[in-house]
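Revision sheet: structure tokens.
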Amino acid sequence: MTTGVAPGDAMPALVLEAIGAPPRLATFPVPVADEDERIVRVRAAGLAPFDLAYSAGRHSLGRPPTPSVVGREGVGLADDGERVYFDNATAPFGSVAPAAPVHRDRLYPVHPAVDDATAIALGAPGIAAWLSLVERARVCAQDTVVVLGATGAVGSLCLQLARLMGVERVVAVARGGPRLERCLDLGATATVALDTPYLAAAIHAAAGDSVDVVVDLLWGEPAQAALTACGIGGRFVQVGNAAAPAALMPANPWRTNWVSILGYSSFHASVDQRRRAYAEVLAHAAAGRLVTTTQAVAFAEAEAAWQTLANGPRAKVVVVVDD
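Predicted:
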């Protein structure tokens, strides 16, 4: 689908018209960039759980303006012809549209050997995975790493990146089934199903009796178990709460083992940190060292793609805007 647009025109887009309502395909004004922005001709847009929460007014960032175009992530051609990834179009514009204005600081060059869908799948998830391991956990090759929620987009990248950093023992923790088993192909040296009795003991045993780093995408009871399994000086990086918004944390052994709980949010990472992280994961992908799973959907099916996202996708949802 080719969707050429010009300033002053109306363009097709996936538009949120009311907080909490599903967005629909409609027309939206074509953006005009200010002096700090560039217009990106969008080729592919990514949809993520963030978009669901934000459109429903359930995110810490507040509520989006209405009407507005949904989608935070995209890949396309900037107005100077450079192929770029972006992670934050200027409101009320978004990525599921032929054109988006993006601040220059939020544009990231895309490696020519990486296709559009992979570039999106490595965007927000790749940046979060890299910075969680490198900037927050300060992972080193001697560490044993546990990933809670290892079958998700960020978790699966954490497994692979930890191994690429030289970590020899990486434990994947998630719901049992084929997706957890697949974690062994992605670099996990052991797996633990969430419904395993005495989960803390199972994690401890799978880690070889020493847990140095936990990357947590779940929170709730799994986080309690992993904290209990941490060794002296362990680093627990809290990234997401897919299992529960709250967790009951006993004082021991967290306190007695000097375990550090470290929060992570990409929104507070600096521009330079995000740019370096994205360049690193793209380089690994270009060399064939990272595996991602994507589900491509045509622009005309964008409303159905939103429903797929709401139903819990098994892959990164990518809307092909302009091919």
